[in-house]
Amino acid sequence: MLRYLISYVIVICPSCYKTSTREALINKSIKPLLTAFNQVPGSENEKKCTLDQAFRVVVEEEIINKAPCENLLAIISLAINGVTEGICTASTPFVLLGDVLDCLPLDQCDKIFTFVEKNVATWKSNTFYSAGKNYLLRMCNDLLRRLSKSQNTVFCGRIQLFLARLFPLSEKSGLNLQSQFNLENVTVFNTNEHESTLGQKHTEEREEGMDVEEGEMGDDEAPTNCSIPIDYNLYRKFWSLQDYFRNPVQCYEKVSWKTFLKYSEEVLAVFKSYKLDDTQASRKKLEELKTGGEHVYFAKFLTSEKLMDLQLSDSNFRRHILLQYLILFQYLKGQVKFKSSNYVLTDEQSLWIEDTTKAVYQVGTVSTS
Length: 369
Hints:
It comes from Ficedula albicollis. By secondary structure, the chain is mostly helical.
């Protein structure tokens, strides 16, 4: 008799649950599933597992029939309600999401992920968090592997922001517990002065009236003169600073610190004296960002010498560099786990960092005003 009941639940009931699921979707109500769940014989766990499988079968059929994303999301929403009512296992909505995202093209995955983002409060609730956090993390990592970092930048960013909202700051999977730096993040720029187009060569080209290439500045677009010449020497110092941002421990070495200090003072002096390009336009862009308009995106820094003038006069670019300074200073001053006991700042270094931090905020305020 027991064997017969188990066989009935496993073989016959999926069809019963599948019918009830279809009916629930049409009526946009979970009542048909609740009725079926209460009428079918068997233990609660057996019935839950059977209903979970019925959901997956319905999702599979919808995918095969190329149903719109709205239909798939309706099934997942039904599964969420089923968990709340206690007729599904808590992991069911996440399993369904995984099935859907694995089978759909990226343009449709974007729509599904919008649903995932909107329900972050649901995923963080006590009912779902423990059961679903690993599913969501795996799902997001699988999506990131499918996406191009250069072509799907916004989508990749949305996934990272979702994970940041989902997991608490104490979540170990998102922590750099050993305080390691990404030393592979090397910024490549022209290190051969003989190949440089800055300085005298650049001036001669403009005087000869050569055509301005796309992306370069014309004479009428040049910002107000800066007291420090924009030559190869400044270009080299500016981009050399990225190596210190990449690996801050260099600042604890005397020779490296002197170099960093010298380069930083010159770069910050340029920021102070170099006029921002079209302040009103920058304000307008900032307002658009606040209202959800245009995205400001910087790829891995573009280090072409031809762009130097434009970059120095771009307020968004300037803020990126200033933020790097603040992050670096925070590391140098902070008590960081796994930091060597030999990494200690002198009083003179601490004072310089304090003064320079104020200067960075001052320059940053000018950039946004």
